[in-house]
Amino acid sequence: MRFLATALLLSGAINASAAVTACSDGAKTFLPCELTFDVREGELPKDIDPYLNETMRVEFRSPSHSTRLIRAFPGGNHILRVRFSPTESGTWTYHVTSPIKRYDDQEATFQVTDSGLPGFIAVANVRHWWTTNKQPHLWLSAQAPLLAIDPSAFEGWLDQRKHDGFTHVGGILLSGRGPMMPLTADGRPNEAYFSALDDRLLAIAARGFVLDLIIADTSFVHSIDLADWTKRDPLLRYVIARYGALNVAWQGFEHFEEIDNARTLLNDIAESLDKYDMFRHPRSTGARDTSSSLLRDNWMDYLIESSPHPALGAVEHQFTEKPEIHCVNATAPDDFRHEIWNATTNAEYLSISYEALQNPANAKAVQVLAKVMADTRHWELEPYFDVDGARAVGLNEVEYLAYAETPGIVEVQLPKHKYNPFWVNTITGEEIPLKDYRGEVLSQPTPDKSQDWLLSVPREGHKEMMLRSYRFESEDPPIQEPELDTAKTPFEIAAPSGETLPTSVSAPYSIKLTRANRASRSMQYVWWGEIVAGPDGPRVLGIGPKGTFRMPESFRKPGTILNLRLLAINANGKAYQLDHVYQLRQ
Fold first, then answer.
1. DSSP strand E in 314-466: where?
2. pLDDT value, residue 309
3. Closest CA relative to residue 142, chosen from 324, 366, 304, 381
4. pTM for this one?
5. DSSP characters for 432-494?
6. How many CA atoms within 13 Å lie on the side-chain side of 53?
7. pLDDT (0 to 100) of residue 18
8. Is 50 exceeded by the pLDDT of residue 328?
9. Binning pLDDT at 50, 70 and 90, where does residue 15 land?
10. Which residue, 15, 119, 140, 432, could crosslink 131 as a Cys pair with Cβ 3.0–4.6 Å?
């Protein structure tokens, strides 16, 4: 068998460390290596197209005898490439199956050394993350317009994100917005486009980042009929073969709500990932509001939400059992800090827009957050509700983080132990120590009234002991069942009243509290709607106690039935659900 050294020379100034190593020449764990096969004229049967058909499969067998079947992809100039990341050090064996007789049934070995990387990410502890080596992973993602950044500036941008504390870099694989298109006029991969994309993605991977890869943006989806299997299947097979060996978190569409028939298409993409992604990377889809409406289709490993209203993430956390990523779009420094810390106290992970990171103040705020979270058991933190004057997250009897968006008095009720509290300046990262505390109600004014502050309340000695005593989780994650009994629900739907809703105007909505008490003093609401037997599934119609429904155009069909579902949590985090059915009228 003949191997060709793969030299993906990076366009512009991307350095050569991003090139893929030949598997026979220094392969390392959790980094991609390649087998490269030349194809001579006439070797492929005439009815087999190297892009439209599966032209080669390679089964890789590890030293511990686990196997992974990887497909080849055409690499231009009559070359087939097989990209693979070994997950163990030692001697690997691979076996080739191909209609090219020169390669069919060939077998060989190669050596793999340990890279020191922790491995691929996966869901752990219901709503959190770990890596292959069973160590906790803090998801903190920076988004980038991959092909829009000048190559000479990209290296520096990546290095700065590493300095900031980011662990992920995200971007779009198939985009119709740039000067280069992913596909040629005859619908085949544009090698120049994918070579340029390789440059960026391999440079990201070389620095140890996880890649959050949106498979397609709206402009690309509108340019191709993905419902056509003959177009969709070879394209997804190609993309997965080219990038599935990286440490990837798949994200189907940029905003699935903007795409007709998105639910069906995402199910089709999930089937392709089942078939072609042998590393079983986690998957979700980008969303204008939230991807949780697609949970019933049973293909998502994590959720993505993009609402500027923290109530959406707060409520969803109590009704779902998946990790949730919050996409931060605020760019003004005050708004940015409020958004990242409110999402964090919802126990969400963060994905930061490229535009937000153009402001150095926002990059500094991320550095502060990354440092704070690195000193916590972030993989066990859950929303904590025994607090006034702040939103909080904590691990019971271990540590608590209380975020005061509005300066004032912060009061945290605590199990009686010795704590080592301190304030964190969310702008500068400066820490202001407080006296050790042994009581049950810690009450402190923010250091000043000019900005937001974070109160950290850890038991440092206990945390050190836990690192020696617990490999990963110290207690089962909380899962709650929502209250469905209207007699025990402290609110009711005041509007819309009656049994019908107009389709010509956006209807107002509101709730009426029926039981005012300490628990109902602070309620958070999310309004969902779904057309009964409709193809779209549920969509967010409103957030908060009152407002005007934002009704999708596909819902505006007179005569159809709308199932309205109101989800809420009270000040103690207890979850409630109310349902009502309306007929839509002209």
1. 324-328, 349-352, 382-384, 387-388, 391-395, 399-404, 409-413, 422-425, 431-433, 441-445, 453-458
2. 97
3. 366
4. 0.94
5. EE---B-SSEEEEE-S-SSS-EEEEEE-HHHHHHHHHH-SS-SSPPP--PPB--GGG-SEEEE
6. 11
7. 52
8. yes
9. very low
10. 119
The DSSP element (H or E) to which 507 belongs, if any, is none
* Cβ neighbours of residue 117 closer than 8 Å, sequence gap 6 or more: 29, 30, 31, 208
Q: 28 falls in which pLDDT band (50, 70, 90)?
A: very high
Beta-bridge partner residues of 69: 59
The verdict on whether omega for the bond into residue 458 sits within 30 degrees of 0, i.e. cis, is no
Question: What's the chain's average pLDDT?
Answer: 94
147: helix, coil or strand? coil
Q: Hey, how many other C-beta atoms are within 10 angstroms of the C-beta on 507?
A: 17
pLDDT digits (tens, 9 = 90+) for 92-116: 999 999 999 999 999 999 999 999 9
State the DSSP code for 77: S
**Dist. CA 93–CA 53, nearest whole Å:** 25
pLDDT tens-digit readout, 497-538? 999 999 888 899 999 999 999 999 999 999 999 999 889 999
Query: Whose CA is closest to 361, among 376, 340, 391?
Result: 340
More confident call, 503 vs 445: 445
Alpha-carbon 205 to chain mean position: 17
Strands 387-388 and 391-395, by their bridges, are unpaired
Q: Tokens in use for 426?
A: 């969310």
CA angle 318, 324, 330 (to 5 degrees): 110
CB atoms within 10 A of CB 437: 18
- Number of H helices and E strands in the chain, helices first, is 9, 36
d(CA 509, CA 531): 18
What 3-state DSSP class applies to 351?
Answer: strand
CB atoms within 10 A of CB 565: 15
**546-548, strands of its sheet edge to edge:** 491-495, 508-513, 546-548
Q: Which residues contact 81 (CB under 8 A, 6 or more apart)?
A: 6, 34, 35, 36, 37, 72, 73, 74, 75, 242
Residue 10: pLDDT over 60: no
Residue 6 has a pLDDT of 26
Q: Do the Cβ atoms of 290 and 319 come closer than 8 Å?
A: no
pLDDT-based confidence at 467, cuts 50/70/90? confident
pLDDT tens by residue, 230-273: 999 999 999 999 999 999 999 999 999 999 999 999 999 999 99
CA distance readout (Å), 283 to 168, 271, 296: 15, 12, 14
Is pLDDT larger for residue 279 or for residue 14? 279
Q: Is 559 exposed, middle or buried (0-12, 13-18, 19+ CB in 10 A)?
A: exposed
